[in-house]
Specification:
Keywords: Cytoplasm, Hydrolase, Protease, Thiol protease. It comes from Ranatra chinensis. GO terms for molecular function: cysteine-type peptidase activity. It holds the Pfam family Peptidase_C15. Belongs to the peptidase C15 family. The protein is an alpha/beta fold and 154 residues long. It has a single domain (4-152), classed as Peptidase C15, pyroglutamyl peptidase I-like (Aminopeptidase, 3-Layer(aba) Sandwich). The chain is 27% helix and 22% strand. The chain is built from 5 helices and 7 strands; from the N terminus they run βααβαββββαβα. The chain has helices at 21-26, 34-38, 51-65, 121-132, 146-149; strands spanning 4-11, 40-47, 69-72, 81-84, 86-88, 114-116, 136-139. The chain has a 3-stranded parallel sheet with strand order 2-1-3. A two-stranded parallel ribbon has the order 4-7. A two-stranded antiparallel sheet has the order 5-6.
Length: 154
C-alpha cells in the first residue's frame, strides 16, 4: 500500500517578528520520526508571508508533491490550536510583508468563493484532546490575511 503523502507548511517572518512560531514548530516535525511512526511521506516547506508568493508557490508545490493531505500551520496570539473550517476568496484588506494586498481584496487563485475542509474537525478535535488533553478550537472566524489565502490555492 502506498504511503499517504502529507504536505506541511509553516510561515516565514512577518510584522516585526524575526521568526514565525509556525515555522519553528513545523520544521521540527521531520526530526520526530514522524514518517516512520505514521507510515507517511512528509514534505515540509516554509512559505513567505507574501500574497503573490503564496498564489504561485502553493499550487506549484502541490503539483510537485501530489499530497493526499495539505496542512498549513499558522499561529494566532498563542491561544491554543485553532483549525480553520473554511477559507474565503474575498475580503483581504491587510497588507503582506512587502506592503501588498490583493486587488479589490479578492484572491486570484481558486474558483470557489468559500472552500471548506473535508476533514471531520469535531472528530479530530475530540481525538486530539483524548490523546493530549490539549483542546483544538474549530474556527469559523478565519482572518483574511495571507496565511488564510494559501488554503484557497489549488
Amino acid at each position: 500500500m502506498d504511503k499517504t503523502v502529507v504536505f506541511l507548511t509553516g510561515f516565514g517572518p512577518f510584522e516585526g517578528h524575526e521568526t514565525n512560531a509556525s515555522w519553528e514548530a513545523v520544521k521540527l516535525v521531520p526530526t520526530l520520526n514522524t514518517e516512520e511512526e505514521l507510515s507517511i511521506k512528509l514534505f515540509v516547506e516554509q512559505l513567505p508571508v507574501v500574497y503573490s508568493s503564496i498564489e504561485k508557490l502553493v499550487p506549484e508545490l502541490k503539483l510537485a508533491y501530489k499530497p493526499d493531505v495539505t496542512i498549513h500551520v499558522g499561529v494566532y496570539n498563542g491561544r491554543g490550536i485553532r483549525i480553520e473550517e473554511f477559507a474565503k476568496k474575498k475580503g483581504y484588506t491587510k497588507n503582506d510583508i512587502i506592503d501588498n494586498c490583493p486587488k479589490g481584496g479578492i484572491c486570484s487563485t481558486g474558483s470557489d468563493d468559500v472552500l471548506c475542509t473535508q476533514i471531520n474537525l469535531p472528530l479530530l478535535s475530540r481525538t486530539f484532546f483524548n490523546e493530549t488533553k490539549q483542546p483544538i478550537y474549530i474556527s469559523k472566524e478565519a482572518g483574511k490575511y495571507v496565511l488564510l489565502l494559501r488554503t484557497l490555492c489549488p
